[in-house]
Amino acid sequence: MSNDLHVLESLPAYALGSLDGEEAQVVSEHIAGCYLCRQELNAFQAVADQSLLAVPEARPSGDLRPRLMERIQSLNVKQSAQTVRRRFPGRLMPVGALVSLALIVVLAVSNFLLWQRLNNSEVLAGPLGMRAIALQHTSAAPSGSGFVIMGADGRNGVLVVDKLPILAETREYQIWLVRDSSYTDGSVFSVDEYGYRGVRLRAPDSLLSYSAVWVTIEPAGGSPEPTGERVLSGSLFNP
Amino acid sequence: MKSDGLDDILLVKLIAAAHTDALEQLYDRYNRLVFSVALAILGDRSVAEEATLDVFVHVWRGAKTYHPDRAKVNTWLVAITRHHAIDILRWQNSRPDTKSLSLDDVFLSNGPEMPDPEAHAELSLQQARVREAIAQLPPEQRQVLLLAYFKGHTHQQIAKILEKPLGTIKTRIRLAMQKLREMLLDEVQVTDKSEGA
């Protein structure tokens, strides 16, 4: 690639997250295929993260530590209860895994067939009660699109995205299944050079029990809860 | 298990294995840093305290996602804090009046409470280097850095806030980041090498 096509001048602003939609899209598409610019971006990202260390010292109130430990305690209690609830379904795993595998194959084939029909509708009812839900993009991914396809009982589903911005190595996309004010990690993924990816959704409960699905930008490896910018979202409620 | 004196990476590994005393130890080391970043971005102590709690709960639930080859623990923590705080700002859709923020308040003052030099020697050194580097930037470059990274504004929003041409804003951001990179070369190289590993 010749130098005049590089996006070196935009990388500092991209690392700060201050490029506007279209410019950010141009940069993300370029760095997907340019090792030099990716390396440069990683260096500027490191500078940006370092700059956070310059803030003046402040001290939170003394009761924050006990409040934190209370929250952790309450999380641990919830987690123990969930573990007990999951034991019984665990015995059915071999059969469940085979059924899931078969459904994934069906979903993948349906993916292509349904894609074009989704352009103008949010929800599409498919064969045997299958449903497809188109997701709305945000200004953080102006060209991005995606949809969720799920089986009739909501036990299995896939997310397919297209034209999402390529992220720096230190960032990944994360899927969130939203219910009330809680967020369940649905998977972490990166996209290929076209911004495309298909991902199986992982959820402890039926997908029908969640109200919405979000895709956010998170630190690589994912976060326990959404912390970054949302790029796609859609309602799963009464699909 | 006693976790006093363990290095940061080991602490995070212990947290991933559900050792609450390791989380307490990490909190003791970094609560001021996390709170300081949250406060600088959010401008409100009670909201910043909630954000601080959120960050450490995130760490508890997601410690296994930490990759020591990609970032130091303190950099990982402040990056999570910044993302979460900016997201809160956007959810609130009511950023503080950024025109009235003092650059020196955000970047240059050490504040009345310095970290314990023995317990935080490495972090203090790192912070001093970054503060010194940022202090050497012209005020107008510090200002755009503040608005972009600490307040989550885009080029166009910054141009509107400062009533300056878009090109001027782009140039200031680029120059500020290039100068910082030169001044913080060693710190950045450490990260580069580890990320490439």
What report would you give on this structure?
By secondary structure, chain A is an alpha+beta fold. In chain A, 36% of the residues lie in helices and 24% in strands. Chain A folds into 2 domains: 3-52, no CATH class; 94-235, Immunoglobulin-like (Sandwich). Chain A has helices at residues 11-16, 21-32, 35-51, 64-90, 93-115; strands at 123-125, 131-137, 145-150, 157-162, 171-179, 182-189, 197-200, 212-219, 230-235. In chain A, a hairpin with a 5-residue loop joins strand 1 and strand 2. Chain B has 197 residues and is an all-alpha fold. Chain B has helices at residues 8-16, 20-42, 45-62, 73-92, 103-108, 121-135, 139-150, 155-162, 166-183, 185-196. Classes of the chains: A alpha+beta (239), B mainly alpha (197). At the A-B interface, helix 1, helix 3 and helix 4 of A face helix 2, helix 3, helix 4, helix 5 and helix 6 of B.
How many E-type strands of chain B?
0
What is the CATH superfamily classification of the largest domain in chain B? Answer: Winged helix-like DNA-binding domain superfamily/Winged helix DNA-binding domain
Q: Kindly, what is the distance between the CA atoms of the first and last residues of chain A, rounded to a whole number of angstroms?
A: 46 Å
Overall geometry of chain B comes to globular
- Oligomerization category of the chains in this entry: heterodimer
β-sheet strand percentage of chain A: 15-25%
